[in-house]
Amino acid sequence: MSTHTFQAHRPALTTAPAPAAVSPAAAPAPLTAPAPRTASAAGGLSAGRDAYAHLSLTRTVPKEFVHRASVAEVLLTDWQRTGEDRFTVSAQWPRGHSFFTPIAGYHDPLIAAETIRQSGLLLAHTEYGVPLDHSFVMHDLSIALDPAHLRVGAAPAALTIDVTCSDITRRRGRAASLRYTSTLRRDGHVLARADASCTCTPPAVYQRLRGNRTHTTPLTLTAPTAPQTVGRTSPTDVVLTPTPHPHTWQLRTDTRHPVLFDHPVDHIPGMVLLEAARQATTAHLGHPTLPLTLTTTFTNYAELDTPCHLQTHTTTPTTPGHHTTHITCHQNNRPVFHSTITTTTP
Fold first, then answer.
1. Mean pLDDT per segment of 10 residues, for the chain of length 346 residues?
2. I need a surface site. Which of 197, 279, 289, 322 has the fewest CB within 10 A?
3. 172, burial (CB in 10 Å: exposed 0-12, middle 13-18, buried 19+)
4. Using an 8 Å Cβ cutoff, are 197 and 177 in contact?
């Protein structure tokens, strides 16, 4: 399973003195998601939406809504409701990123997966009432991309994402689980289509599920495989360690990585697993790859303190120039995730 857990902290305001009625020792109020935004009787937007009333004014959404500690890792810039359980989210991809680096002049397809991940979190918090202290368990993610619209241009890529939420279950008036189907567009062209599902878990329930796993010590960092064999230039970004067995790698977990481990977690994040699947695919095929489709099912948590092993095999391609690789990951004799990635040579 891929779980997103993030503790939001509101920094103290120092630009103005606190009102006299507030005790200096009082703790700041917990940060909560805003109420859903609705149109007024006059056709305008409610007061709570005023600060986000102009899609043309580009800035990132609050980092807490997408479970990021670093503002620099927030890809989303705005959102609005367009119908019942339908939304438009805007995003921006930089021309260069410290981790999602371009591949032969194309935007890294995995930045699209991260964009989808952030979109689901944003809408769950802002439109479906999920508190910021809840944990998100992602069960599956599928994405198909059109490389014709992945080219890095002369400016950052501006995207609009049409999202439809379905299979929504609610508890106490807030979403407990949902599926979200997305269409990513760039300059009016469909860049990608995606589908994902998740559940939203209250802190007490998550603590019962995880038990003492919330305080585990990560494994000693293992040696990276050669960066060029997995499509990377720096060993810092390699998430695989070679093994003596063919087409088998051990997952390498560097909790100091500023993007993959943006904040403390009690398990290996889903984006690390997706990157491992991509790197294993490149190593298996023996040449640079550009992912075109990716389908992943998460079945168990990937623990930090026990070795994970990935195995790969390919199937006969149905399209000339395309390769389909199947990646399975096991830990403690249990499946962690399974991915199928179709790639082409960039």
1. 56 38 34 39 37 60 97 97 97 97 97 98 97 95 98 97 98 95 98 97 93 86 97 97 97 97 95 98 97 97 96 90 97 97 96
2. 322
3. exposed
4. yes
